[in-house]
Design a protein that fits this description.
TIM Barrel; two-stranded parallel sheet; 8-stranded parallel beta sheet; about 375 residues; 15 helices; alpha/beta
């Protein structure tokens, strides 16, 4: 393989993309042929029926040009539920905090994991590790387990174990904490004026526990939030070398994958812009870049990363280190599929036992 092609495959593995429609668009399939994309994220717009979900994930498993792709989804529960009937619908995670049962938390993670694996997924962008500390927060709210970091740590650990035990990579979000904000990063750039000492005391506690103790978090998503007191020079967490390297990697000991939140969110596009954010995020230590909709923006991110490599601004050995991190997480969790076992999925998804566990959580038992 020519050196440029090999470099492009290393770069392509760093990008997770979304798209419109219920099949992978031909132009996105061509992009994968050229770059070997790292993964795909699916939303309600992609998932219309039980059989179609499995047709789509089966198609996506063949992408990645030799490295199986992440096939991810936000399956948190409550309002953030992407899958159609008959997939089990869980209440929001505030119910988890109210029930405060580690055994229920494990069962919920395991059920979500079993159903996702049966349907061809391998990555869940969950659980939310944000603390529910601001009642005016328009985007986190009841997605958060609790305002108590110890409770979030213990219940999220059980959820993650349930996901891992069923071959699903878990992703904790949104680092270092999106709970104490009053605006939605999908619409504008939120700010958080908590200093690093307060973040260490509360917001970072679940990350510390889940990174330093089993089952060990493999992926962390950054918050598109300005932390003006924690890092005055580079306040946007997604591009903050201080928060991602000094705090997350060195202080907390994180060895897994750092993924951005969607780079098409207005918190990015209306501030630094997608290309400058990509450059700065790469320099700050981001491993995976999430671009959830537009092919043009996905191409911009890929070409920006290629330019950083060709100009020598990002050393070659760091491309290899990032590629190895991605490869190792995939190897640790993936059951590589040749085809989805539809009969097994029909028997498993939304079965009586899964519905019982969902009711148990809703009833707070």
């Amino acid at each position: 393989m020519a050196e440029l092609d090999q470099l492009k495959r290393r770069i392509g593995q760093r990008v997770i993309v979304g798209f419109e429609g219920t099949r992978i668009p031909p132009e996105l399939a061509r992009l994968d042929e050229e770059w070997g994309l790292g993964g795909f994220i699916l939303f309600n717009r992609n998932l219309k029926s039980f059989e179609q979900v499995m047709d789509l994930t089966e198609e996506l498993w063949s992408k990645g040009q030799g490295t199986p792709p992440f096939i991810g989804i936000d399956q948190e529960g409550g309002s953030v539920h992407r899958l159609p009937t008959p997939f089990t619908v869980f209440p929001d995670m505030a119910h988890m905090g109210q029930a405060s049962s580690v055994s229920v938390a494990y069962e919920v993670g395991a059920v979500i994991g079993r159903e996702l694996t049966a349907a061809g997924f391998n990555l869940n962008f969950a659980p939310v590790l944000d603390l529910s500390t601001n009642p005016d927060n328009p985007v986190i709210g009841r997605r958060a387990i609790s305002d108590d970091p110890d409770k979030v740590s213990s219940l999220a650990r059980a959820i993650i174990r349930g996901l891992h035990d069923n071959s699903i990579v878990a992703c904790g979000k949104h680092f270092p904490g999106h709970g104490d904000t009053a605006t939605d990063s999908h619409e504008t750039l939120p700010t958080c004026d908590l200093d690093i000492d307060r973040l260490r005391e509360k917001e970072l506690a679940p990350y510390r526990e889940l990174i330093q103790n089993p089952p060990h978090l493999d992926m962390v998503m950054t918050a598109h939030v300005d932390y003006t007191a924690a890092d005055p020079d580079h306040p946007l967490a997604t591009v903050s070398r201080y928060l991602l390297q000094d705090v997350l990697r060195l202080e907390l000991g994180f060895k897994g994958l750092v993924v951005t939140d969607d780079l098409e969110m207005k918190a990015v596009t209306d501030s630094l812009g997608i290309e400058e954010t990509t450059r700065r995020a790469l320099s700050a230590g981001v491993d995976l870049f999430l671009v959830c909709k537009s092919l043009d923006e996905q191409v911009k991110v890929l070409e920006t990363l290629l330019d950083e490599a060709e100009q020598g601004r990002y050393p070659k050995h760091l491309w290899e280190r990032g590629f190895r991190r991605i490869r190792d997480v995939k190897a640790r969790h993936f059951r590589v599929l040749r085809s989805v076992d539809r009969q097994h999925a029909r028997e498993l998804v939304g079965n009586r036992e899964h519905l019982r566990i969902a009711r148990r959580l809703k009833d707070g038992k």
